[in-house]
Amino acid sequence: MAYLDTPIFGFVISIIAFQIGLFINKKTKKAIFNPLIIAIGLIIILLAYFDIDYEVYNKGGSIITFFLGPATVVLAVPLYKQIERLKSSGVPVLVGIIVGCTTSIVSIFYLSKLFGLTGPVSISLIPKSVTAAISSEISAQIGGIPALTVAMTILTGIIGNVIGSYIFKVFRIHDEIAVGIAMGTAAHAVGTAKAIELGEVQGAMGSLGISVAGLITVFLAPWLLQILT
Question: 61 vs 1, 58, 66, 80, CA distance in Å?
Answer without folding.
Answer: 18, 4, 9, 31
